[in-house]
Amino acid sequence: MHHDRPVGELLREWRHRRKLSQLDLAIQAEVSTRHISFVETGRTIPSSSMVLHLAEHLGVPLRERNRLLVAAGHAPVFRQRPLEDADLAGAREALQQVIRGHEPYPALVVDRRWNLLFANAAADVFLNGVGPKLLRPPVNMMRLGLHPDGFASRLRNLRQVRAFMLPRLARQAARTGDPELSALYEELLSYGTEGDDGPPPDPTDIALPIRISHRGADLCFLNTITTFGAAFDITLEEIAVEAYFPADAETARFFHGRNTASSE
User: Fold this and answer.
1) What is the helix (H) or strand (E) element at residue 145, kind and residue range?
2) Which domain holds residue 58?
3) Residue 80 domain-assigned?
4) What would the pLDDT profile of 201-237 be if each residue is shown by its tens digit?
5) The Cα angle at residue 226 between residues 143 and 213, in degrees rounded to 5
6) pTM for this structure?
7) Which residues of 215-253 are buried (b: 16+ CB within 10 A; e: fewer)?
8) What is d(CA 35, CA 47) in angstroms, rounded to the nearest whole number?
9) For residue 231, what are the contacts with CB-CB under 8 A and spacing of at least 6?
10) Which residue intervals define the domain HTH cro/C1-type in the entry (predicted)?
11) Looking at the structure, do residues 22 and 55 belong to the same domain, yes or no?
């Protein structure tokens, strides 16, 4: 298991993941290269404050910082509670308000592995008509988007979406060191065929347009992802809100028209 390994080995792995030399890290963290070397080889067991100091400069996610602390023989300091926890009732309500406030356009809340936590009513544009197996909890939005039985068949620019989403997922898996994200990436990669992916998006584009057919309408969205810098709480740090905005007048009219009809 990841947390059974020595803290020095884990820190060295994170340093390599960030493509830093011992000297780079020593300069950034303002500690001696010798101390970094001693920690990584196990000659020195770092204090909890030193573990957190190095982890901060390595950009280690909060969940993994707890593992580093435990590996060094210290108590974890970051809280991890299920989103259903009574103490997170305020956060749940705030998230619901955010996605309800985005109506009539789609918005949803996902966890660190892109599993769906909440969605507003307009998000049915993505859930409509997908295979029943993909709607069994946990519903994974990455899988839902690229699986042949998901809404991939309704994506009019599937190649471009794959070319945008797969590298993003690969970077996320590398950044977090999460083996489940790596497995998800390999799974999604297998859905395409060689030469299937389109050209990478223009780096000057503010966002990738998502073009989808829905109930006879051709819709086009831009999406944004919002995360929360919630210090000391793993659950909240790992949550993201995906909000979809109409990228053209026809899409805006579709949702406003549907909203008007539903309120009559």
Assistant:
1) helix 141-146
2) 2-71
3) no
4) 565 566 778 999 998 899 999 988 888 765 578 888 8
5) 45
6) 0.78
7) eeeebbbbbeeeeeeeeebbbbbbbebbbbbbbeeebbe
8) 12
9) 237
10) 11-65
11) yes
